[in-house]
């Protein structure tokens, strides 16, 4: 039986980016004022999915304020230019009748299960990057070490092609350069959205499958992989079309718009916002770990077509088939998708991950 998790309280939440925060205060119950470099936002916490504080702050973060925010299920990410890892503040664990974390830790120790998850993540990651270079072949029975070697080799080729597009072939992803700074900021911004859904669905953010270390939220970085290339392709256009000094600010602005764009995903045959793909990957992993899905399948943008849809046990927040004009609107959403428009090579829009 499919579980449609749609509720009005969660479907409209959006991530918030606060560069160089000056102050936070509660103006009335549940309503907060954020003053930062560039403006002021007064919001109801029920409208926020995550908060990223970027750069130095002019204020001490009050414990009571942080407690009120995180108890609403809103993770806070603090990131500065020279921080190798951001600081994550979350509200902790809630009761879970399914005991999802136990299933996650047990399955993580099972080679067959953990390898299946890592393999699906890697295939989807390379698929999302195929707008720039072809995906590499992944042997069906490759172990984790082999998968990581394939990922490293593919990533080296990808970033060489990416920076060549920017006319800076000498740049390296892990070095300090304007593009890497903007990409890092964007990555931390997306990580906050995924962290929210990981904790909301009772998973441990520190126990990944493709990334195994437990001294940072490795599952967050695992579940970013399937859409990483999609967002990087959007940022590539920002870098090409705007001034270098504005790349970080423009990247976050463009990401916000991209997250809110409607796209079609063939996995659940729905029109959803792009942000929902991040939620869908978390949901799919949860149901797979709980044994409610035979495979870990990953939702990605696609074009409407016939055939039998893959079997998944969830729906995303968004519209699904049934109304007479659905397929027409789905075609429009697919045709407007910036990522699909780039006509990737060796690419199957509707491959179920």
H/E topology pattern:
EHEEEEEHEEHHHHHHEEHEEH
| Amount of helix | 40-55%
- Catalogue the unreliable spans: 1-10
Strand-residue fraction?
A: 15-25%
Structural account:
This protein has helices spanning 8-11, 63-70, 100-108, 111-128, 144-165, 178-200, 218-241, 247-260, 275-289, 326-335; strands spanning 3-4, 14-19, 21-28, 31-36, 39-44, 48-54, 76-79, 87-89, 262-265, 270-273, 314-315, 319-320. By secondary structure, it is of the alpha/beta class. Helix 2 (63-70) links the parallel strand 6 and strand 7. Helix 6 (178-200) runs antiparallel to helix 7 (218-241). Residues 1-10 have low confidence and may be disordered.
Which helices and strands, and how do they pair?
Elements (H helix, E strand, L loop, with lengths): L2 E2 L3 H4 L2 E6 L1 E8 L2 E6 L2 E6 L3 E7 L8 H8 L5 E4 L7 E3 L10 H9 L2 H18 L15 H22 L12 H23 L17 H24 L5 H14 L1 E4 L4 E4 L1 H15 L24 E2 L3 E2 L5 H10 L18
Parallel strand pairs: 1-11, 2-6, 6-7
Antiparallel strand pairs: 3-4, 4-5, 7-8, 9-10, 10-12
Helix pairs in contact: 4-5, 4-7, 6-7, 6-8, 6-9, 7-8, 7-9
């Amino acid at each position: 039986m499919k579980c449609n998790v749609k509720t009005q309280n969660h479907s409209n939440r959006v991530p918030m980016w606060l560069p160089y925060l000056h102050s936070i205060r509660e103006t009335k119950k549940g309503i907060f004022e954020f003053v930062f470099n560039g403006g002021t936002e007064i919001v109801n916490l029920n409208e926020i999915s995550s908060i990223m504080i970027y750069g130095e702050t002019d204020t001490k973060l009050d414990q009571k304020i942080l407690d009120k925010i995180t108890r609403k299920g809103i993770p806070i990410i603090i990131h500065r230019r020279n921080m190798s890892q951001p600081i994550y503040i979350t509200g902790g664990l809630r009761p879970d009748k399914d005991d999802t974390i136990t299933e996650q830790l047990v399955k993580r120790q099972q080679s067959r299960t953990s390898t299946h998850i890592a393999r699906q993540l890697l295939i989807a990651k390379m698929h999302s990057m195929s707008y720039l270079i072809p995906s590499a072949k992944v042997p069906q029975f490759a172990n984790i070490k082999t998968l990581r070697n394939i990922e490293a080799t593919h990533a080296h080729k990808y970033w060489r092609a990416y920076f060549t597009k920017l006319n800076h072939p000498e740049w390296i992803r892990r070095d300090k350069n304007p593009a890497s700074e903007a990409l890092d900021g964007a990555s931390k911004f997306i990580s906050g959205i995924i962290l929210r859904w990981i904790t909301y669905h009772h998973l441990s953010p520190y126990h990944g499958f493709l990334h195994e270390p437990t001294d940072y939220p490795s599952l967050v970085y695992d579940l970013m992989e399937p859409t990483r290339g999609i967002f990087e392709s959007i940022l590539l256009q920002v870098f090409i079309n705007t001034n270098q000094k504005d790349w970080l600010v423009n990247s976050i602005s463009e990401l916000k718009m991209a997250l809110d764009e409607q796209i079609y995903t063939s996995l659940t045959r729905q029109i959803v916002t792009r942000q929902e793909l991040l939620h869908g990957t978390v949901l799919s992993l949860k149901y797979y770990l709980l044994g409610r899905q035979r495979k870990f399948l990953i939702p990605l943008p696609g074009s409407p077509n016939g055939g039998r849809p893959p079997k998944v046990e969830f729906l995303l927040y968004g519209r699904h088939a049934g109304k007479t004009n659905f397929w027409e609107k789905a075609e429009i959403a697919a045709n407007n998708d910036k990522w699909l428009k780039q006509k990737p090579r060796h690419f199957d829009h509707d491959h179920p991950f």
